Amino acid sequence: MITIKNITTDMHHYQAMRELRNKVLLRPLGISDNAWEMHDDRSWHFVALDNNTVVGCAVLVPVEGNLNLAQLIQMAVDPNIQGKGIGKLILNEIIAFAKIKQFDEIVCHAREYAVNFYEKAGFKKYGNSFVEVGMPHNHMKLKLG
C-alpha cells in the first residue's frame, strides 16, 4: 500500500527523495545532481512510500513575497511504476496541505507531457509556453479558494 508522508530535510527519507529526483528529472537531461535544491530548506517535502521505500516525491515551495502562493516543483515517480496513480496521491496530499496552510493558489512549471495530468487535478494553463531545462513547459495554476 502506498502512503504519502510530509518529511523534512533531516529525515532519512530525504536522501532517497533526492536520489529519485536526480534519477527521474535531472540525469536524463544531463543536469547535475541536486541542481534544484536551493529551496529545500524552506520547503515542504512529500514522499510516496511503498513498504518504506520512496517511489514518488514532490516539493512545495512558499513563494517569497507572497504569503498566499506556493509553487509545486520536482514532482517525480519511479519510472517502473508510473501510471498507477501515485502522482495523483502525492498531488492530492499537497493540495490538502496547501489548503490547511491557507494558500490561495499553487503554481507550477509543467513539462509539456504532464499538462494533462495537472489539468485533471484542476490546474489551468496561463501565459505562454516556454522552454526550461531544454524542454517545453507551461505555466499552470490551481486556485484553492
Protein architecture, described:
- The chain is of the alpha+beta class and 145 residues long.
- It has a single domain (2-104), classed as Gcn5-related N-acetyltransferase (GNAT) (Aminopeptidase).
- The chain has helices spanning 13-26, 86-100, 115-120, and strands at 2-7, 44-50, 53-62, 69-77, 105-111, 124-132, 135-143.
- It has a seven-stranded mixed β-sheet, sandwiched between helices.
- The protein is globular.
- The mean pLDDT is 94.
Order of helices and strands: EHEEEHEHEE
Structural class: alpha+beta
> How many strand elements?
7
The CATH topology name reads Aminopeptidase
Main sheet strand line-up? 1-2-3-4-5-7-6
Strand proportion: 35-45%
The number of helical segments is 3
Biggest sheet layout: 7 strands, mixed
The percent range for helix content is 10-25%
Averaged pLDDT: 94
* Uncertain ranges: none
Based on CA atoms alone, the radius of gyration comes out at: 14 Å
**CATH H-level superfamily title:** Gcn5-related N-acetyltransferase (GNAT)
| Overall form | globular
Look at the structure and give the CATH class: Alpha Beta
**Structural domain count:** 1
List the helices and strands and how they pair.
Layout: E1 2-7, H1 13-26, E2 44-50, E3 53-62, E4 69-77, H2 86-100, E5 105-111, H3 115-120, E6 124-132, E7 135-143
Parallel strand pairs: 4-5
Antiparallel strand pairs: 1-2, 2-3, 3-4, 5-7, 6-7
